[in-house]
Amino acid sequence: MSEKIILLADDDTDDTEMFCEALEEINENIICHCAENGNEAWKILNEINQKPQLIFLDLNMPVMNGWDCLKLVKKEPHYKDIPVILISTSSHKNDIEMASKLGSICYLVKPNSFNDLKQLLKIITSNLGDGLRDALINLKESGSKHIFICNADNQ
Predict the structure, then answer these.
(1) CA 35/CA 27 separation, integer angstroms
(2) Using the 8-state DSSP alphabet, how is residue 152 labeled?
(3) For each of the chain's 155 residues, which pLDDT tens digit applies?
(4) Pairing state between β 84-88 and 106-109
(5) pTM of the model
(6) Which of 42, 66, 71, 146 is the 20 to 30 A CA-CA neighbour of 96?
């Protein structure tokens, strides 16, 4: 399967544009569905024909935040196996612990640099599927300040 489906929910249009531009430069076969909040992400998830291989959820969004959307995704049997990466500008320990508790595979602190984001996304999207967790662990172990691995028990 050459096509990769990703769902991104982020209310910051600049961040969304940067994210999509980075994905486009990495691989033109990546389809990224974008939502401005968790409610819209949930709607897209239920409307698209093919389940995404990965979901990125910003924590702080209007209407429905990333926490509530993550809870919905993990509660729904049809979607609970889709890996979810929570994204935020902060790296508060409590947020990282909550992300782990709610079933996120990883917590990603948004990079300020386009090239940093592109490098992270290149590694992540090249390892969708069974290799994703190991790729994230390798990123963290190689010194990435943006990646925080969540508890494997919740996967």
Answers:
(1) 20
(2) G
(3) 478 999 999 999 999 999 999 999 998 889 999 999 999 999 999 998 889 999 999 999 899 999 999 999 999 999 999 999 999 988 888 888 888 899 999 999 998 889 999 999 999 998 988 888 888 888 888 888 888 888 754 44
(4) parallel
(5) 0.92
(6) 42
